[in-house]
Amino acid sequence: LIKGVVHTFALKVERYNGKIDTELEAAEAHVFVDEMHITNVIFNLMDNAVKYKRPDVDLHLMVRTWNESGKLMISVQDNGIGIKKENLKKIFEKFYRVHTGNLHDVKGFGLGLAYVKKIIMDHKGTIRAESELNVGTKFIIALPLLKTD
Ligand code: ATP
Ligand code: MG
């Protein structure tokens, strides 16, 4: 599923002189997901990475999967404009957008991450973001693995 979204984005990212790297290392990836919604989740995160790139820096996206304490972990990391600590706690709220003045005139409703959060919660998972202004942002998702015993 993730490879599919990455593939969809490859052309778009190339247009920005950017690149997407993947490290899909999750050995156990048996999760029960709503395919359409989880595809949209990854899509939204990658869409943001493209929208909030630094204008003077080539976009570099890194998508990782791994296993950690019985969970499937997925991270989407960019080298974009980043988000200030005080704003970071609000980004999952409906209609919240960081005020960036005239620096970049990027359109949006502030709904993408509220949707992402809802879908991950519905899957009994968690999502958090780490960010540094002018360095980049990383979203980390944990989804419970299916119990196979
Ligand atoms: P929509 O997704 O509804 O089209 P949006 O992108 O503005 O609009 P969200 O995806 O919910 O809304 O993101 C909320 C805000 O968080 C964004 O407006 C932006 O300020 C900030 N943000 C989200 N992702 C990133 C990112 N990867 N890098 C920097 N800022 C981000
Ligand atoms: Mg968005």
Question: How would you describe this structure to a colleague?
Answer:
With 149 residues, the chain is an alpha+beta fold. Helix content is 31%, strand content 26%. It is built from four helices and five strands, in the order αβαββααββ. Helix 2 packs antiparallel against helix 4. The chain is globular, with a radius of gyration of 15 Å. The relative contact order is 0.21. The mean pLDDT is 93. The structure holds adenosine-5'-triphosphate and magnesium ion. Adenosine-5'-triphosphate binds next to helix 2 and helix 4. Magnesium ion binds next to helix 2. This is histidine kinase.
Gist?
Helix content is 31%, strand content 26%.
Mind sketching the topology for me?
Layout: H1 2-15, E1 19-24, H2 35-51, E2 60-68, E3 71-77, H3 85-88, H4 112-122, E4 126-132, E5 136-144
Parallel strand pairs: 1-2
Antiparallel strand pairs: 2-3, 3-5, 4-5
Helix pairs in contact: 1-2, 2-4
Bound molecules: adenosine-5'-triphosphate and magnesium ion (MG).
Total beta-strand segments: 5
Query: Average pLDDT, to the nearest integer?
Result: 93
What's the SSE pattern?
A: HEHEEHHEE
Distance between the ends:
25 Å
Protein name: histidine kinase
Organism: Caecibacteroides pullorum
Domain Histidine kinase: 1-147
Descriptive terms for the model:
alpha+beta; histidine kinase; about 150 residues
